[in-house]
């Protein structure tokens, strides 16, 4: 009886030791893999090529930064408005989505150092009967923006909340690609879209839509991690600073912002 107990205790201790080793091995492994969440509707920062592969400036950049820091990277496409909740619930580790660093978002996430500056712009369909030369002209049209973005907040705060634009003329989209598709259908769907200026330029390259107004908002994009994850944000900052000082950065800018 005594011996049985002894053997049992030894087996138990052994099992605990093995279990601990196995578990820590596991965490090590999952820790080395970073899941990056994006919203692939925002060229040239994040979009899909003809095969459906997620590509773009942000994607190349965050992959380079994280692999340089010893991580492996997987990219997941999630609607922009769901990115912060996905980060908070641990479904993703990093947001790379041309996300503007704002005080409001800083309450919910930790941002990297800024890596790109932008303003807002107004897009309309080429050849449509739409005349917009100043902000007030927007009141005559249905205006669209992606839910949860700074562009959406600008329309809401500057046009809707002030009474300049009727709320039923404000159309929210889950994806900016859907907003642009509606814009091309015509003003009966949506007459104008408020969107980040570099992305407006990218959409305008198709020749179907054009920029009619620039709105100065002085935004800067950052990568976001879960609030309190100092280790990861420090590594991203170290990697980002290093990459920005190399020719890789110039090549990336060249690849996605010229031609
Ligand atoms: N910069 C804007 C913001 O932070 C828009 C970002 C939209 N990004 C995207 N991948 N759809 O709100």
Short overview:
By secondary structure, the chain is an alpha/beta fold.
What can you tell me about this protein's structure?
This protein has 259 residues and is an alpha/beta fold. The chain folds into two domains: 32-115 and 223-257, Periplasmic binding protein-like II (D-Maltodextrin-Binding Protein, domain 2, 3-Layer(aba) Sandwich); 119-219, D-Maltodextrin-Binding Protein, domain 2 (3-Layer(aba) Sandwich), CATH 3.40.190.10. The chain is built from nine helices and twelve strands. Strands 4-1-5-12-6 form a five-stranded mixed beta sheet. A five-stranded mixed beta sheet has the order 9-8-10-7-11, sandwiched between helices. The protein is globular. The protein has helices spanning 2-32, 57-68, 83-88, 103-106, 150-160, 176-185, 197-204, 230-244, 247-257; strands spanning 33-38, 47-48, 54-55, 72-77, 94-95, 109-111, 116-125, 143-146, 170-173, 192-196, 209-221, 224-226. Helix 2 packs across helix 8 (230-244). Helix 5 (150-160) links the parallel strand 8 and strand 9. The structure holds arginine. Arginine (ARG) is lined by residues 39, 41-42, 46, 80, 97-100, 146, 149-150, 176, 196, 219.
């Amino acid at each position: 009886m005594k011996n049985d107990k002894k053997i049992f205790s030894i087996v138990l201790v052994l099992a605990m030791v093995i279990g601990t080793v196995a578990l820590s091995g596991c965490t090590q492994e999952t820790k080395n893999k970073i899941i990056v969440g994006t919203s692939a509707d925002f060229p040239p920062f994040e979009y899909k090529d003809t095969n459906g592969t997620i590509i773009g400036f942000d994607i190349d950049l965050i992959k380079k930064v994280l692999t340089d820091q010893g991580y492996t990277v997987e990219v997941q496409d999630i609607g922009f408005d769901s990115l912060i909740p996905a980060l908070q619930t641990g479904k993703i580790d990093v947001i790379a989505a041309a996300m503007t660093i704002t005080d409001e978002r800083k309450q919910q996430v930790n941002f990297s150092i800024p890596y790109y500056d932008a303003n807002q712009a107004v897009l309309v369909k080429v050849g449509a009967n739409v005349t917009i030369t100043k902000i007030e002209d927007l009141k005559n049209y249905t205006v669209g923006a992606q839910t949860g973005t700074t562009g959406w907040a600008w329309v809401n705060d500057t046009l809707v909340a002030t009474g300049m634009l009727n709320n039923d003329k404000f159309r929210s989209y889950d994806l900016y690609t859907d907003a642009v598709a509606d814009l091309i259908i015509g003003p009966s769907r949506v007459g104008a879209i408020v969107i980040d200026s570099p992305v407006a330029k990218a959409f305008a390259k198709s020749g179907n839509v054009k920029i009619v107004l620039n709105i100065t908002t002085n935004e800067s994009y950052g990568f976001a991690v879960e609030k309190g994850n100092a280790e990861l944000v420090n590594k991203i900052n170290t990697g980002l600073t290093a990459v920005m000082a190399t020719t890789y950065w110039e090549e990336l800018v060249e690849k996605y912002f010229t031609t």
